[in-house]
């Protein structure tokens, strides 16, 4: 089928994904479509196993969809990878333990063949952007989990990607560090004008970091709801106290779990 794509953002059209391993067949995604305009921020939320990571991995050219197609900045995922248009940051972003933070952050540039002076300059800039200045010579084991994730984000930013694909980047962090990094990420997104697609299990994180939250139904995953978050791009921690924030939270819980019942008030619902 010929898929005609408009726009230069992230685009998923009618994507289906069937995994086959030995004689086990898993239908992970059916008929998923999503458009994320350039410069906007989107999140994917949904129950465990509904295919969020699979969608991200399709855009990142790690797996190919069984049906449908994806575009990153108007290019196929493999073309976009060759152009280094996107960067992927995941929960367990690996740092090489024998390299300093500076050397780890430089890694992507090194692989891309960027010369040493330019590597140093861009790595130092990214390290400053994520608030790790002063820790250039530290080794990963000497940093906290939050600082290592900042370093992973810095490494992703050195290649100046137009698209940031983030798979639960703060999932392993405590609540306080996580919220702090949410707002640091907002600042970075504004400074770099990157387009974001974030996979998260946290409804609050999705609201804080998104213009639109796409809710996926349980496996086989499809996009069941889209909730537009009307906060604009000037966001502060005070947004959590805004009545609209509470309303978005309720709407997203409802989309995930159905209406609250007397025995399961909305405030006690959680999802994983
Ligand atoms: N490489 C693979 N081979 C076979 N099945 C897979 C593979 N990767 C994912 N799956 C299956 O596809 C479905 C979707 O997985 P995926 O990791 O995309 O979901 P997810 O929503 O990101 O889950 P979680 O929130 O738990 O990370 C799951 O049933 C999973 O077991």
For this entry, give a set of tags.
272 residues, alpha/beta, Rossmann fold, 2 domains, 6-stranded mixed β-sheet, 3-stranded antiparallel β-sheet, 9 strands, 33% helix, globular, disordered C terminus, binds adenosine-5'-triphosphate
Walk me through this protein's architecture.
Helices cover 33% and strands 23% of the residues. It is of the alpha/beta class and 272 residues long. The chain has two domains: 174 residues, Rossmann fold, CATH 3.40.50; 66 residues, no CATH class. The strands form two sheets. It has a six-stranded mixed β-sheet, sandwiched between helices. Strands 2-1-4 form a three-stranded antiparallel β-sheet. Helix 5 packs across helix 6. The longest helix is centred in the last third of the chain and has 18 residues. The chain starts with 9 loop residues before the first strand and ends in a 15-residue tail after the last helix. The C terminus is likely disordered. It binds adenosine-5'-triphosphate. Keywords: ATP-binding, Nucleotide-binding, Transport. This is NitT/TauT family transport system ATP-binding protein. Pfam families: ABC_tran. GO terms for molecular function: ATP binding.
Summarize the helices and strands and which ones pair or pack.
Layout: E1 10-21, E2 24-36, E3 41-46, H1 52-59, E4 67-72, H2 77-82, E5 86-90, H3 101-105, H4 107-111, H5 116-129, H6 145-157, E6 163-167, H7 175-192, E7 195-199, H8 203-208, E8 212-216, E9 223-228, H9 243-257
Parallel strand pairs: 3-7, 3-8, 5-6, 6-7
Antiparallel strand pairs: 1-2, 1-4, 8-9
Helix pairs in contact: 5-6
The structure holds adenosine-5'-triphosphate.
Adenosine-5'-triphosphate binds at residues 19, 21, 26, 28, 46, 48-54, 219.
Pfam families: ABC_tran (PF00005)
Family: Belongs to the ABC transporter superfamily.
Organism: Kaistia geumhonensis
